[in-house]
Amino acid sequence: MNASTQSPAAESTGNASADQAKADGMINETSYTALNNLFNSLNCEKFGSELQYRVSAAAMICNKAGILAGMAGGNGKSKNGQLEKTNYRQSQQSTGMPTASLPVSLSALQSQASISKAAPKYGDSELVSVSRSSSYHPQPVRVDYNTYRDKKGPPLAPRNAQSRVITNYGVSVSGGGIDFQAECGWDDIYNVDKNGQQFEFLEELFDGRPGSKGRKGMPARDLREATVYEYTQFERQINAWFDKVSTGRNNIV
User: Fold this and answer.
1) CA distance 94 to 83
2) From the CA atom positions of the chain, what is the Rg in Å?
3) Could you give the maximum distance between any two Cα atoms of the chain, in Å?
């Protein structure tokens, strides 16, 4: 498109219209501020980082809350959405899907989320949930069931919030501004076999394993895919962000 015939950006057109409406006495100062914030948000690279943070923080907090409550992911593979208790140790009984809404105040959300820029050790994630110090990342060592027999945490999280399904959960953001995608998952969770070779094992825990020769198999304990609770919290954060950039008000609850 030729520059001389290119339509003005939505921001400049909208802001100019707001200026004119204010000058003509058609809108008051509050409405003028709201319109300017809204038009700025249409070209809002500067606002996008907060939206990305809100979604990433909500994903990490919800992952932690769901796991500690003994709940599965949103793919419907688990009975009643609950992770089946373990037999080799006394894992906690599921307490049901979390119901508490996350705060929409950005400062309150930040205080609830433990987020750090991901070190290269965390694979593709750019942000990680770090309940330990950000430098904690032990080399995988060979462990067996006996290592965890005295742990009382929920299924897949024997050490509760210190378990790797929480601390090594990460979010990778692609795109910019408000046109972005957030991919969530677990990075660098390995065990070591008897030959000293590292291997990933989460997928097997998620998928389960059929029994053989009269032996009981391992039930699927799948954390993958977002739950209705998580989608509700994402929507709540997006609405809070839009309200903030369109009105200029900071959310306080």
Assistant:
1) 7
2) 23
3) 84
Of 207, 223, 227, the C-alpha closest to 58 is 227
Q: What letter would DSSP give residue 71?
A: B
**pLDDT of amino acid 229:** 94
User: Counting beta carbons within 10 angstroms of the beta carbon of residue 151, is it exposed (0 to 12), middle (13 to 18) or buried (19 or more)?
Assistant: middle
- Angle, helix 228-247 to helix 29-41, in steps of 10 degrees: 120
Burial of residue 23 (number of CB atoms within 10 Å: 0-12, 13-18, 19+): exposed
Q: How many residues does the chain have?
A: 253
Q: 42: buried, middle or exposed (CB in 10 Å: 19+, 13-18, 0-12)?
A: middle
- Predicted TM-score of the model (pTM): 0.76
Higher pLDDT, 72 or 187: 72
Give Cβ neighbours of residue 136 (< 8 Å, ≥ 6 apart). Answer: 130, 167
Per-residue pLDDT tens digits for 196-211: 888 888 888 999 888 7
Question: CA-based angle 253:229:239, to the nearest 5?
Answer: 45
